[in-house]
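User: Structure with S-adenosylmethionine, tokens only please.
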Amino acid sequence: MFTKLARFIKTKYSRRVDKYAAKKRLQALYLLKAWEFMSDKNYEFDLVEHCYVDNRKELDDIEIIKRIVAAYNKAKAAQKSAPGFYQVGNEWLPIYEKQLKTVMQALSNEDIPALRKIYQNFWRDPCSAGLIGLPTDMGKHFFGKRILRKYKKMHLFSGLHRMKLWRSLMGRNASLDELSSPAIGNPYYCSIDGHMVKAGSDYLHYYASTIGRLTETSQTRIVVEIGGGYGGMAYYLLRDQSNLTYIDFDLPENMALTAYYLLNSFPEKKIVLFGEAELTPECIASSDILIMPNFEMDKLADNSVDLAFNSYSLAEMAPETITHYIALLSRMTRKYILHVNHTRHSLVTADEFGIDPAQFALIYKMPALWNAGVNPDMDEYEYLYRKKDAPG
Ligand SMILES: C[S@@+](CC[C@H](N)C(=O)[O-])C[C@H]1O[C@@H](n2cnc3c(N)ncnc32)[C@H](O)[C@@H]1O
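Assistant:
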């Protein structure tokens, strides 16, 4: 009787019931988090505004931007004849149409002064939309003069939860110093034990160290990432691992941002952008970093990559793109596919990406709890697959 009534109410008022239930779940989560962090010395509302102080710096980046503009415009020209699954799609389409308009214009007009202004403010400028931040309008709630208490709470719960998770995954000896990274752009932080920890550095560092461990014994360490965001994971990977080549494939606009971050972070490394050299085995072997548009992925040879990585992006793409990328990754990877993706809030669940069980064994699937401090409905999982005929 009760179930029937509940089902009737749910169908009739479905959206309102779902919204109400989501609100209640969030309230319950916040109660639990307040209890959990009440006596933590970092649970300090007065510190939050300090974490969002505008700290952009003028960089000597003109030559870097000139290289990026050349690579971007070559990639845009070549993108026109690339197949449909390489075009921007699904959840990224609105970001392109609204948030990235200005940076796309500046890139295609080769407007160096405008690009310097944009990139020196990335993290806050819309050019990094969809890559960074809490699940709210960051500009409206965090970058103004005052941050309301409810958003300070969100900041603290997220930051403290993530830090606790990072420490539990990395072990007792992990030091906060490992999370430091160059303050390129205009980042914001979380204040932990007197350290200013860049937002999101926890998961980026964790995946970089996991990849480092998994590829440790390979002679030629080649790691491919699809959709590397601003290059945050790549930074830790390349800082901490030696003899490793990192190749990122992304849409041309994010490819430009990744190039900005990594070129500024590693002036001493050999970095190849699109159009500067052909993506051949020789070029890969002699480079540290290659930042390419997605359609260049076809050029990688079978079994030429030790580990392929993707985080928080495959599930956001169009189904035909996912199928194509999984086929490509399966072909080019000789050992591991590691990915972190949505299982419910996406067109295709990460459980059904189509990684062939005859070719790859699932080593583990585990919840990726990074967002669980502020999202009671989180659905992200981390998956590690190993090729069945992998060497060693
Ligand atoms: C939510 S961000 C995640 C960034 C980063 N992996 C992280 O975890 O912080 C999604 C990334 O996927 C990229 N992306 C979106 N559609 C793509 C496509 N069709 N091909 C390649 N990359 C794509 C975006 O440009 C962006 O770099």
